[in-house]
Please model this.
Amino acid sequence: MRPPKDFFRPLAVGAPEPLREIPVRPSRMIHFFPPSVDKMVAKVPDIIPTVDVLLANLEDGVPATDKDAARAGMVRVAQDNDFGETQFWTRINSLDSPWCLDDLTAAVLEAGEALDVIMVPKVEGPEDIHYVDRLLAQLEAKAGLDTPLQVHAILETARGVANVEEICGASPRMQGLSLGPADLAANRRMKTTRVGGGHPGYLVRSDPDADNPEAPRATFQQDLWHYTIARMVDACVTHGILPFYGPFGDIKDTQACEDQFRNAYLLGCVGAWSLHPVQIGIAKTVFSPDPADVAHAKRVVDAMGDGTGAIMLDGKMEDDASVKQCRVVLELARELSARDPELAEAYDL
Model:
């Protein structure tokens, strides 16, 4: 491990100074698109204003025969578009693949100034981040970049989850983590073929009726991902980076998608992946605070003054912990209002 005094020194001569704080920008949805498909690339200018993050996907979902075309498409999108307030990310191929090195090289040398974040799949430990960190510094020095690219890791293996704290603290480039439920389920040998979401077999059952033991007993479906999301959120917050829910694969089940996104939002995630345009609106709704919650948060903060002590408001006790919760909601509402005039009006900010 590098000693603390060396942590913020560039890892290559001529590389930009590492970031000391990760910029927090609206990131309610990371919208994936395949840059190997010309029809999708043509739609990018129309998609950019509708999303917080646009991601060119080079990894899963791109056939091996199309990897070079996807990389070239990512570069073309980076060079041909004005992203404005929208972030532009790319997901490279895994570190054990034959395409990863070319992905990173093209990302920095050909698309670097347009890119904000590089998403690294199947990260299993801090050594994976150390490799990417050093290589990016060398490439940034060669490209003459002034600002370092950030790194986002996906938790897709049990080992990655076990090492989540070390991954979060592996580099000042670390921007955040996403849950990759499909690969993680396979690695854990979980008995589900769903991409995210719950499973009807993962449930609890109410006790028998003492007066009628044969009566039907209510069942309640549980969340397969609650533990992992909560652990990921704790690790991210500890290291000052951002947690995201990953994909929800059943595109047609918009209600379940909304429910899963909301679970992640309530647990502390700042956004989720969108795999289809219909999921953009769901993420935008779920990861934007409800106007009623914003109004309540403003009332609590105004009523509490310096934030100490305790008061009764509408029959409920509010204290310093309440103020902290309310300030989280208000901070997010202000960030979103600066980008979205409709939300600014709804929040009265």
In short: DSSP finds 13 helices and twelve strands in the chain. The chain has a mean pLDDT of 92.
